[in-house]
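Category: protein sequence paired with discrete backbone structure
Discipline: computational structural biology
Format: plain text, a pair of labelled lines
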Amino acid sequence: MAVRPALASVLVVDDEPIIRANLAEFLYTEGFAVSSAASGEAALNLIGQKKFDVVLCDVNLPGVDGIEVLERVARVSPETFVLLITAYATVESAIDAFHKGAHDYLMKPIILREVVGKIRRLLKQRDLHRENQWLRRALNREDAADGMVVGRTPAVRRVVEMARKAAPTPSTVLITGGSGTGKELLARAVHRWAQAARPTDGRFVAVNCAALPPDGDTAAPFIAAGAGTVFLDEVAELPPAMQAKLLRAIDGKEVLPAGAGEPVPVAARVIAATNKDLAAEVAAGRFRDDLFYRLNVVVLHLPPLRDRREDIPELVEHLIAKHAGAMGKQVAGANHEAMQLLLACPWKGNIRELENALQRAVILGDGPLVTPADLPPDLAPRPDDPSAVDNLEEAVRRFEKRHIERLLRVSTDKKDAARRLDIGLSSLYRKIEQYGIGAQTPERGASAP
């Protein structure tokens, strides 16, 4: 028996009840699955719960307006088409809407047949759009060094701007940030930008300082790099004897190869990376202060992924394209549900963890879009994770619940827990009841409120 195709889903967002009801009813009679919302806030709530193929949204909404709805849809559900509805269209407003991700716009008074025509035209183009998207990414895919510099958050833009300024210079660069934030990828990008500005036959040579023996050879990486880059990963782990050799290489621009009687001049620039506080390592006597000052010239700090969640959709697109291209698979991106999951994850392993999850998804997935079933099963965040929601009141509620639970685990005496929380005992009991925290009973000697 033939499988009936799923109905295309449409969300109608308009604060005028008559327009909203007429559009919804007409689209339903035309064979669409229709939902409606009277405000931008209600629309964002629905968009967070399910995927829509098309969103029709009035621009002039009280509170959260249509442009903000458009921008949120573009981030969390890039495969959804958005048509903006306006009574005051101008060339400037139309251009602005298209720049922000709108696929078309409708003028009031709305002509219902025109609406249906536009929606069907967009849906007909959808498969072709996905195919073109995959081909474009495959043709224009950049190398892995660009993986780090994907992103538009202010912190990432600042890092990229500083890196591009430092790249053509011979200055040492220190890259700081947690494990998996992309320190080596950024170092490779700096090297490539330097080569573009001043072409040489220099190479990028990466050294894991944590794996070097105390009597290791510092000369080999500098000689191998030529006029390129020596990347010292985990530089805080460099043994003291190696720190002295590195200092001489940076200061004197020469190294002494093993077994050689004379030093050899070198031209490689040094980029170092660490996930530790080097200044604190100097204060503790574990790192030479003179070497620290040589390295601490241009410092590029990479924020953890949890602090740049707005970049996740763009990173997802880039990383899926990278691995799909390498495997010869036509995967165009992540669907709405998968993107929502990826946006909510804590990402303790940062970009490296995200990339591993998406590489697995590309390997196991069969469709043109990554789905939650393709992602690692343990990826889902805790249901009470404050970072999984945007609403401030709900995030505070979740944090308060988890904070009280933590104190009750370490302090079985509720009087003591209330004291540490700086609230009254009766308030603590009310919060325990409010949040449904365990099966709590009053302490012996204490009266329940």
Observations:
- The chain has 17 helices and 14 strands.
- Residues 1-5, 137-147, 439-449 have pLDDT under 50 and may be disordered.
- The first helix runs from residue 17 to 29.
- The domain at 307-379 is CATH 1.10.8.60 (Helicase, Ruva Protein; domain 3).
